[in-house]
Design brief:
Elements lengths: L2 E2 L5 H24 L11 E4 L4 E3 L1 E5 L2 E7 L1 E9 L4 E6 L6 E2 L4 E7 H6 L6 E4 L4 E6 L6 E2 L4 E18 L11 E6 L2 E12 L6 E9 L2 H7 L3 E7 L4 E7 L27 E8 L5 E12 L4 E5 L6 E3 L11 E4 L1
Parallel strand pairs: 2-23
Antiparallel strand pairs: 1-4, 3-22, 4-18, 5-17, 6-13, 7-9, 7-12, 8-11, 9-10, 11-13, 13-16, 14-15, 14-17, 15-16, 18-21, 19-20, 19-22, 20-21
GO molecular function: efflux transmembrane transporter activity
Protein name: Efflux transporter, RND family, MFP subunit
């Protein structure tokens, strides 16, 4: 959660507050001197209720982006028949731990069985230390080339792969730490590989490696996670009521990208806010939606300055540029 900005420069801070007070005073004065229900014939003003105008609360935040993925073993492979063959024996069961080179099963190629009934079966060995996940083969059964026999995985490390916008590539480096939580327990992974997506060059696939203990492995495997990584310098943003932030069609900002923890999209989302400028005119200003706070139903947005007033009233696009009068 962002924190309030300390008053490091008191003079500048007071000047900004004084400027806001002047603007508010001028708006209130216009409310006293003009009938509240009047609208000039030119239609160049708009009347707003006082409660629809607010000063902004500035906060500091650390830019970050989200990593979403499913935790899997660092390596998983399916061992298949290299040639048509029959299974002579199977030495392991699903769930067994094996070492590289351990015999998993023996088989007799069809060509050898046809020419020599007493031929010694071949051995299929484990390609790495791991765990037998599944066994598809059965003894005394014949299989065609490429038929699946066993599935083995290496859980000495875990990983997940997150797909992100290629625009974030400059902020990602192999070796960067990625923090994530599972059931309230914090974990840390490390970026091991970054690839441009083969199907969409506008996306990148980021591989995150997780070192775990044996006890943690069972709890983490198959879990969906949302991690994050910080980048850049501390930034300044504004906390705004969600119902005062709009999309390009001036509809309430879409919350679908913010509903799941940590309530921030991979990259900030475009939005719009009604800002009252120093000349009392309304401006439909573009902002970036950085994060959503579901408990308070507020957005953290970037693109509004500290000396701004904003309107929380629902307006149409024709209000842009009009002079504000308070009711």
């Amino acid at each position: 959660m962002p924190t309030k900005i300390p008053a490091a420069h008191q003079c500048s801070h007071h000047l900004q507050r004084r400027a806001l007070a002047v603007i508010l005073s001028a708006l209130l004065l216009s409310a006293c001197t003009e009938p509240t229900n009047s609208q000039p014939a030119t239609g160049d003003t708009i009347t707003l209720p006082k409660q629809a105008v607010m000063t902004v609360k500035m906060v500091k935040y650390q830019p970050s982006f989200a990593f979403v993925g499913v935790i899997t073993p660092i390596k998983k492979t399916t061992l298949t028949a290299l040639t048509p063959a029959s299974i002579s024996s199977i030495s392991v069961q699903a769930g067994d731990s094996v070492k590289k080179g351990d015999v998993l099963l023996t088989y007799l190629p069809d060509t050898l069985a046809q020419s020599n009934q007493s031929a010694t079966p071949f051995e299929l060995t484990a390609p790495f230390d791991g765990t037998i996940d599944k066994i598809f083969a059965q003894t005394n059964q014949s299989y065609d080339k490429a038929d699946a026999w066993l599935e083995i995985s290496d859980t000495s490390q875990l990983k997940f792969i997150s797909q992100l916008s290629a625009s974030l590539l400059e902020h990602i480096q192999v070796g960067d730490a990625v923090n994530f939580g599972v059931d309230g327990v914090s974990h840390t992974g490390q970026i091991s590989q970054v690839d441009i997506d083969k199907d969409n060059p506008n996306l990148i696939n980021v591989h995150v490696i997780i070192d775990t203990t044996n006890d943690e492995t069972a709890d983490l495997l198959g879990r969906g996670v949302v991690g994050h990584i910080n980048y850049g310098q501390i930034q300044v943003g504004v906390v705004m009521p969600a119902d005062a932030v709009y999309d390009a069609a001036l509809q309430p900002a879409d919350l679908s990208l913010f509903l799941q923890p940590p309530h921030k999209p991979a990259t900030p989302v475009d939005g719009f806010v009604w800002v009252i400028k120093q000349d009392h005119s309304l401006s439909l200003s573009a902002v970036k939606l950085v994060e959503y706070y579901p408990k308070t139903q507020q957005f953290l947005v970037q693109g509004i300055t500290e000396d701004s007033l904003v309107s929380t009233a629902k307006l149409d696009k024709q209000a842009h540029g009009k002079q504000v009068m308070l009711q």
